[in-house]
């Protein structure tokens, strides 16, 4: 799809056609949404679709997960007129942090961190990432927020795969993603 083309009718998820499959091998995610972010209307509609289920919900801050979750998270925070918190891979913050180990979509063991002075007890956080494959990264972010006394107001991602971890998140938290139900099987790679 051309980066300037906007379809006459824009159903939820129309912008998913802008994404490209992985051509670099198993150490990369299987699908790359970064081209979607280059499309003005595609990005706007994606963010609107992610935020629609949370309209009227109390949200105090948006947190984006390192690294691609920063793009959608910051766009969501700006749309909601809320602050933005970066949840980082360990070693990137030069302030006091809380750390949480996790396994990412490729099975690699990693550590995530968040600054300890940004979340106060009861603060309602909307967690945003680009994609939830196996759920390990998002679950680590959830644990960090909750360990600091924050409340997970919701989880938003372009896709939350129907994996064991994706189901665990959907069963416990209000979630939003952009994949229409009839297309979900085509987006599940980590079952």
From TrEMBL:
GO biological process, one term: purine ribonucleoside salvage
Limits of the Phosphoribosyltransferase domain: 58-173
Primary location group: cytoplasm
Gene3D superfamilies: 3.40.50.2020
Pathway(s) this gene product operates in, as recorded in its UniProt entry: Purine metabolism; AMP biosynthesis via salvage pathway; AMP from adenine: step 1/1
Claim: Glycosyltransferase is one of the keywords in the record: yes
Catalysed reaction equations from the record: AMP + diphosphate = 5-phospho-alpha-D-ribose 1-diphosphate + adenine
Keywords from the named record: Cytoplasm, Glycosyltransferase, Purine salvage, Transferase
Keyword Cytoplasm (UniProt): yes
A GO molecular function held by the record: adenine phosphoribosyltransferase activity
The EC number(s) this enzyme carries: 2.4.2.7
Pfam families noted in UniProt: Pribosyltran
Any coiled-coil regions, as ranges: none
Localization per Swiss-Prot or TrEMBL: Cytoplasm
Domain of life: Eukaryota
GO cellular component, one term: cytoplasm
PANTHER family assigned to the protein according to its UniProt record, in alphabetical order: ADENINE PHOSPHORIBOSYLTRANSFERASE, PHOSPHORIBOSYLTRANSFERASE DOMAIN-CONTAINING PROTEIN
UniProt record similarity statement: Belongs to the purine/pyrimidine phosphoribosyltransferase family.
Record's subunit section: Homodimer.
Protein name as annotated: adenine phosphoribosyltransferase
Native species: Caloenas nicobarica (Nicobar pigeon)
């Amino acid at each position: 799809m051309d980066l300037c083309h906007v379809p006459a009718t824009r159903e939820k998820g129309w912008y998913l056609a802008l994404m490209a499959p992985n051509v670099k091998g198993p150490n990369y995610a299987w699908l790359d949404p970064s081209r979607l972010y280059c499309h003005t209307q595609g990005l706007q509609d994606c963010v609107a679709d992610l935020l629609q289920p949370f309209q009227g919900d109390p949200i105090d801050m948006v947190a984006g997960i390192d690294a691609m979750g920063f793009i959608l998270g910051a766009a969501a925070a700006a749309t909601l007129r809320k602050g933005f918190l970066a949840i980082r891979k360990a070693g990137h913050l030069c302030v006091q942090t809380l750390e949480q180990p996790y396994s990412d979509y490729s099975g690699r063991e990693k550590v995530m961190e968040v600054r300890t002075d940004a979340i106060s007890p009861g603060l309602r956080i909307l967690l945003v990432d680009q994609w939830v494959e196996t759920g390990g990264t998002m679950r680590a972010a959830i644990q960090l927020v909750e360990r600091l006394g924050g409340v997970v107001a919701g989880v938003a991602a372009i896709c939350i795969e129907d994996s064991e971890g994706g189901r665990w998140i959907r069963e416990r938290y209000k979630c939003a993603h952009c994949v229409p139900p009839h297309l979900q099987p085509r987006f599940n790679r980590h079952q």
